[in-house]
Write a structure and sequence with these properties.
Elements (H helix, E strand, L loop, with lengths): L10 E7 L6 H15 L3 E7 L6 H15 L4 E6 L6 H10 L5 E5 L10 H9 L4 E8 L6 H18 L10 E5 H10 L7 H11 L4 E8 L11 H10 L1
Parallel strand pairs: 1-2, 1-4, 2-3, 5-7
Antiparallel strand pairs: 4-6, 5-6
Helix pairs in contact: 5-8
């Protein structure tokens, strides 16, 4: 895809949606504000993973509003007939990407969208992959998740012999042409996909940068991560 002045589209942003009804519209509005200030050309790719809440209804309303208010932004919607998991959802979105950079962020914006231009800039400066390295504000509301995350990072580095610090963050950007074959080679459909794709990128010799980003837990959002079962699954995989 090219822009009206025949420049390649800068960014394809994949937005994986599962139980996002309460905050989807507000988060997309924040993304639009950041992107419109960035000067980057972009498209939005929504992949809805058969949410049991009203996400699909809100998404239909949102895409109609975007067509009226932002006709210059290409919008693609992919609807899953059955729930397939985070990895399958992001992978499907990236298969539809047309920009020279493809990326995704968690739409709850616990890592804010303000970092998107930094990720694209890193790839423009020669990296193949740019991903967020989460810096936590730890208090009594998120200490369990923080401890589990730090423990998983340590286990992961030893188990798969990687130098990467934060493979599971939901904030990843890729040079599409160089990285799509790696994305296509992933086999995990669930949460472990984040780690799998990063380790495969590292083993493929791709240049990776991890950029510090602030992680701010949103207490009004119910996490889609089942801490104990998902942690056991991560360790097993």
């Amino acid at each position: 895809m090219v822009t009206p002045d025949n420049r390649p589209l800068d960014l394809s942003l994949v937005i994986a949606c599962y139980n996002e009804e309460p905050h989807l519209k507000h988060s997309v509005a924040e993304i639009l504000a950041v992107m419109d200030q960035s000067g980057l050309s972009y498209e939005l790719i929504f992949v809805e993973d058969k949410s049991p809440d009203g996400t699909r209804r809100v998404l239909a309303e949102l895409t109609h509003e975007l067509a009226l208010a932002h006709p210059d932004v290409a919008v693609t919607v992919i609807l899953h007939d059955v729930n397939q998991g985070r990895g399958a959802t992001v992978r499907d979105g990236m298969r539809a990407a047309r920009g020279r950079v493809m990326g995704f962020i968690d739409i709850d914006l616990e890592v804010h969208c303000r970092y998107i231009p930094d990720m694209v800039r890193a790839i423009d400066n020669g990296f193949d992959v740019a991903t967020g390295f989460r810096v936590y504000h730890v208090d009594g509301t998120n200490i369990t998740r923080h401890i589990l995350s730090v423990g998983y990072r340590s286990l992961m580095r030893r188990a798969v012999n990687t130098s990467l610090k934060d493979t599971e963050t939901g904030y990843k950007f890729f040079h599409r042409q160089r990285c799509l074959p790696v994305v296509e080679s992933t086999m995990t459909n669930g949460w472990f996909w984040d780690t799998e794709v990063m380790v495969l990128c590292e083993r493929a010799g791709l240049r990776i940068t991890e950029i510090p980003v602030a992680f701010v837990r949103k207490l009004d959002k119910e996490s889609t991560v089942n801490v104990i079962p998902d942690s056991v699954d991560y360790a097993r995989r």
